[in-house]
Write a structure and sequence with these properties.
- By secondary structure, the protein is mainly α.
- A hairpin with a 2-residue loop joins β1 and β2.
Amino acid sequence: MNPASTGASTTVGAATAVPAPAPVRIPTPAAADTRMSPGGPGYRRMSLALFLAGVATFALLYSTQALLPLISAEFGVAASEASWTVAAATGGLALFVLPMSALSERFGRRAVMTASLAVAVCVGLLVPFAPSLGALVALRAVQGAALAGLPASATAYLAEEVRPRALVTAIGLFVAGNSVGGMSGRVITGWVAQLCGWRVAVGVVGLIAVACAVAFRLLLPVPRHFRPGSLRPRVLARTVRGHLADPLLRRLFAIGALFMTVFGGVYTVIGYRLTGAPFGLPQGVVGSIFLVYLVGTVSASAAGRLVGRLGRRGALYLAGGATAAGLLVSLAGSLPLVLLGLVLVTAGFFAGHAVASSAVGRTATTGRAQAAALYQSAYYVGSSAGSTVGAVAFHAGGWAGTVGIGLLAVLGVVTITALGTRAARVAARRSPVAAC
């Protein structure tokens, strides 16, 4: 029999020729994800650095909010006029956050955040010496514009340097720093102002912000995944148009603005309500009311787990429901019920903000700084509107007027979320893949 025709092995003498073994395939390891994650290198330093940046940002941005009754008394103005010391800062931030985000695309997130904090704390040390309400409002506007480089750059930094699964938690920690800054700034200014006046109080906040800014710069890890972009106006305009054309991003921007309208209105006016009849609380005690911000620290940090259990839309419904319930409870004439209302409003606001802002970071695949900037711009426009309209409503109709404005804003959040749910279902019927 011919071995070649049968496929049998050939022989050479008495030995059998053994077929050569197949080459061993060594799998090529997938590229390691070098982005940070909880427990990994640099994550704790990064979290602490951005937490402190959040503390400094909110402490400076709202440093006059708890002091509005004293500012009104010194300059002889109404609540609606004194509220401009808050609205000017948040308005300046809203106007400059997009240009500052473009600078961060070119020069880096870390550099822009450092420069923003440096300018803001320097202005903060000048605020106590403002000779008039007009000068105070102007300084606060400059301070807000300087702080504009921080929120959007921080969100973009996290989106680039943190693994997607940990992004909501990381942003939640940054938002938690915001809540601690807002709380500590108001509590400290309340007690210091009661003893030494509002000017010394805002000076103390400025010194605290200096310490936070220095620690932030020393702790924040050097970014490893940043790629410089272009400063050309056409490129920026094209990126912004692309983000505004995205229906999901538009909804998230509107949700952030509406949540902040509620929050800005409530906390701008609450000092006037609690220092007046029937409560008549002293300034230091009113400042201590802002300890309820600790609830916001917890709810913002838990936003990731909330989304994991309920989904993004479910978490937004829950946040909106808690905010609305808090507004209604705060109408009571009992101080404990007013405090309970503030707790619910604060928890709902910070949870909703953390969910919406992290969703922006995950939705935008390009131009993340611009997407975050648009969200922050809408967010602080909401803050300015809430501060001003809330104060006007309080002047016209008392606390019930401010609550009415807040409830309209919450209704807007729920409506937009419901429309988003309907749009997602329609997209799923048309193309299950596209709706994912």
